[in-house]
User: Fold these one by one.
Assistant:
Number 1:
Amino acid sequence: MREMLKLFIAVVVFSCLSGGVLAAIQNVTRERIEYQQLKFVKGPTIKNIMEGCSNDPLIDRLKIVDEAKEMNLFVGEFEGKRNTVAFETFGKGFGGELGVIVGVNLENDEIIGVAVTTHSETPGVGSRAKTDPDFATQFKGLSILDPFKIKTDGGQIDALSGATISSRGVCGAVVEAGEIYKRLKPTIIEKVKEKQG
Amino acid sequence: MAKTAVQEFTKGLWAEIPPFRLVLGLCPILAVTKTVENGIGMGIATTFVLICSNILISLLRNIIPKKVRIACFIVVIATFVTVVELVMQAFAYPLFLKLGIFIPLIVVNCIVLGRAEAFAAKNGVVASLADGLGIGLGYTLSLTALAIVREVLGNGTFYDIPVFGPTFEPFAFMVQAPGAFVCLGLMLCIMNMLGKK
């Protein structure tokens, strides 16, 4: 019995020490890992939307809690003014969740760019939502507060032929982005000012 | 002591080179040697784990109770593997994405546990360090050698730099799984022929 206890304690002590060491390392690397993940997964898309900005939107990001969910908002600087923000929302596509990053100008609520990030749409059909630049540019210059719909549903967006559901999914994500934007705009402006000042 | 440490080191490079002489660690060697970069990355990660676990286990060999030694070894190894995983995510994210599941799987790599059980648990710290370094380097060399053959023939590149002219038709078989088996088999055969003399 005594020996059992000794063995038991040995393993427990070992595991505790190992857990402690790992927690410490995880703590140190967490920030960097998060940045790396953003840089390699969403970074290229964000750079694309924020073409011509003079800062690194990945570093100048805001964390805002929206309805108990923490969101990353990427702030872009144009002509010396931090007036653009980009963030990711999700819509329902044909093959599941469809992630879309929307960039908005804070001064006039205009969309500066829309791009699909993660999706599981049919390759070559729904996946064109990501690869076909003509589709995404339709959103450019429109107000984010507009109700976006594809033409079949009485809206203003030309759907990708053969990929109505994927197109609807992108519109849904942009509409969702509009809702979030409406809710968060005051907070965003306040936080951007705080950072700049 | 100094002389034996050198011997422990060099045996890992030839006499006991892991995949060819001990025929251990074959799962990662088949899976990650598609490109030289992956091969070297995997080799370095494994070497780091080997050295650290060898040193620590050798230091603790009189404290760890015999009956639960395997459990304790695995805790030590798993800790170092997780450290590697976190550090790689923080500093070499693209490589982490390519190696993916094979980084956590270093835990169950027979070489690491094998060296802990067969060597570090019975020898001093210096000898264990030399052993870990030698076996690790031997493993890295083997991975690199196999990766060079496969990448150069299968992809026409070396470390992503094209080695043949544009007219070269890549021997795609080499970068697929069967190519790995054939290539490894031929290398084993050559090693055995050289060893017979």
Number 2:
Amino acid sequence: MPRGSETTAPAGGLLPARLGTPVRLIALVVGAALVLSFPLVAPNPYILSAGVVVLNYAILSTAWNFVGGFTGYISLGHAAYSGLGGYATGLLITKAGVPSFVALILAGLIVAALAVPIGIAALRVRGASFVIVSIALVLILLLVFQSWAAFTGGSNGLVVPRPFPDLLRPEHHMVFFYLYAGLIAIALLAWWAIDRSRFGMGLKAIREDEDKAQSLGTPTFTFKLIAYVVSALFTALGGGLYALWFGDLDPIFQFSILTGSYMVLMALLGGIRHLFGPLLGAFIVGTALEIFKLEFGSTQLHLVAAGLLLGIVVLFMPDGIIPAVGNLVRRFRPTESSIREVTAAELLEQNKARAAAAGKPAAPAADADAASETKAEVKR
Amino acid sequence: MKATARARRGVIAGAAVAALALSGCSAAGGSGDSADDPIVIGISLPLTGDFSEPGKGVQRGYEAWAKVVNDKGGLLGRQVELKILDDQSSADRVVADYEQLIGRDNVDLVFGPFSTRLVVPSARVAEEYGMLYVEPAGAAPEVFEQGFKNLFYAAPAVANDHYNYLAEYILALPADQRPQTAAYAAMDDPFAQGTAYGLKEKLEAGGVRTVVDEVYPPNTTDFNSIAAKIASSRADIVVGGTQYQDAVNLIVALQQLNYQPKLAAFSTAPTNPEFSKAIGAKTEGILAPTGYTTKATYPSNTEFVQAYTAQFGTPPGEDEANAYTTGQVVAAAVEAVGCAEQGDCQQKLVDWLRGNTVDTVVGPLSWDAQGRPQGAHMIQQYVDGQIQIVLPGETKEADIIYPKPSW
Amino acid sequence: MSGTLIFQSIVLGILLGGLYALLAAGLTLYFGVMRVVMIAHSAFLILAAYLAWYFHQQTGLDPLLSLFVTVPLFFLVGVVMQRLLITRLRPATLTMMSVLLTFAIALIIEGMLGYVFTGTQRRINLSYSGSSLDLFGARVAVVKLIAFGLAAVSLLALYLLLKKSRFGWALRATIQHKEAAQLTGIDTDRIAGFGFGLGLASAAIGGTALSLDSTIYPSLHWHWIGPLMAIIVVGGLGSVPGAAIAAMVLGLGQSLLQLPLGTTWAQTVFYVALFGTLAFRPQGFFGGRLAQRF
């Protein structure tokens, strides 16, 4: 195991809880104030539009984290739900004449309803098959939305009418910036509430060891399905808001594996176990993407950069920035949190390392492989 | 325990603002409004991706226009400077590009991109910033149905009228020679479909039966099954509503099946200089509509062909000419109104174009209230290995070959 | 719909299925030796096609000759990739993380192709591009026959290698039961590296075959990965013969469905088969014991 010792310290909370509520509140207020004042300090409309794009990423990756973070099921195909949300919003407005924001909420509910049967099918399988299914979902929706031109507009795309036709473009961006900020706040609140509930405990149990959770009486399938549907709901709302803001939907961009992978990258980079992880990841990756497009606009180098970043995150910090920073902080503050925030496998490695440190014979590599193999076998 | 997470979020958000603002400031400030500053014109073009071949043609046309204008002392005594971004043939990028050009770089004027699919989203950006928007390539009917008030199409005719002369010719053939059946294959793209379906409508009304009618998405590369259907239908004529690479692939697939129609017409692709090489030089008899000929006798055209040939070594094609025309149209408005900057000036430019006719390399152009030009396209054909005008009779360079020799 | 059209489609379907089979066999190898779902497989396929195109562009020689460079090169890259990257992942989350890691590699390849060769669509123009043979009334393009022949020969070679050689025996043992293989003295890490190399070599061959008769562009690999994933799931994850049979069946199905449904809808056959398999027979239709673990 090449990355043995750096994970030995349990990755607990970043700060001990006794630091107190006031500090946390102040930090939250300052953070929120910074975000909310952005439209006022943005030097030109382009920067403001880039800000909206970043917030769009933020809501998508936060929504993704409802399933990725709580259950550990990595879906590369969440663009399916943002795309469906966008198209449902657009089609409700253009075909059914529903007012813009009613259409947005209806679209979210419709997509959430659609996610139930899809979730039932997809969550039956684990590991590799779940990822393949999630990718296939995006590809199949791309085909359907490209081909069913009479209904969806096909490759010509769908033009979504403006919700505020009288606004000039900079004002339009500002309104949507605050709409996005509001949606993100709701999503974060929902995450926070679930995180503290029994339901959230059950989900995290699934993430750490699904079979054990099941044998202990957690209704794993129902829990996974609920998390999946909530995730689909917020993803669809994000997609619908994008449709209202951007105005043109093209299947190739709505149902893009790349968008789905950005959600994963952002959440992983920030840290999928943390409330603000995806948000942080979205700020970093989203800003980097925009700067990259500005500096290297006419090349494909932004793909290379995104790929490199994803590779680095997967190889060197699969738990994200927040735990990595947390490790740093803990060096100065050697208190252990009582809540275990590591996977079962990590714990195994840690225990082995401890055993080795205590002078017992180190476990041979074959044993470690066998252990992991057993685990894979258990996940039948 | 989440406190630092929140704090960090604030820091990162702040850093994001700073980073973006910084990069914003460093690049802005290129275009003041003083009389000596150049007039900066913002353009986004598909230099890579699905539309990159025609996109590069449009770029050459714009560059030729800028050079001709600057050699003559510029517009309103100011030099013109093009700022061209690559939108990778993507609607998301084209919007971001114009957003950047207008909102951040504060360009004085904008020109349109290539392809209808990119024109509609980008026209909305221009419209909402109140910019005049003259475009070289949005010929499909949808473009003019969006209610844009600042949009003008700088070419002789909209897509559905491109084949008008060919339809007249086919329907005027004696009954024993007239084709009985036709096969259509069109990209799911408003422009490409518009050309093919414009002809289809007229031929069906004239009694030519449609035996194959296929639509494929823009990213299609496998044309075997479409070609197999066309070949097995033995249609007398084949019409492709195509851009560039799809036409090449379809033709090669048809050749592989040894299908020999009496007439083969494809939009856009045959006018591309690479076309002949790409299909193995088996071009004889292939037809294409065009809005432009280098031999047209309009005064500015002679100048354009000379200047372009001197600059790029080859005579211009249709994409280049449409781009040049776009430049001419905007220049005429700027000279007449006497201003070129963002703000009220743009509305004056729009109003002027609404009420006037502009002389261009494709002839005098005027527009209806939605920005549709009022004209028609010529028909070209590969005759003796050269692409030449064959219809209408008064401008033809060679006689039309019918039926087409085998490929 | 005429009989010749159907026959024509069957021939085209078999030719296409051959290429799918070769590529799916590569994907199966990675999964077999390392439990890795290799998203970058089709990106390497497109990379090989670009190298063939570039080779033809620069030298004017037949693109098939580029195989002498790309096959050893890709084999090496595969071994290095397995040894340096895949083994670094934590075993417990290997399957999920390997998907993300290979996804990242796919993005890097696509980006570099776009950077070096631009997004312009490319196509090799050979003197025999448009020629075809008459096969019982169906027209078969020469380039397609060559591509199929290449795929068939490679698959046969792979089959013989797996069944007849000592290395093949060790590889199969590793796929079936890693620990048991280790106990009999097989260096499974080495074998896994070679398995990866073989998989990538199959992408090199497939890419060259593809370049003969297809337009290529950097993002084309997304177009291939979906069908290939569907094939290995339907065939049973980890089963090479299963993947080959599924590839043939689905390739044929796609080709025939194009007649009534058109090109785009016909592609859905892969995803319908994928969802159907997962719903009714998650271990795949031709897979062995291995597939049931996932």
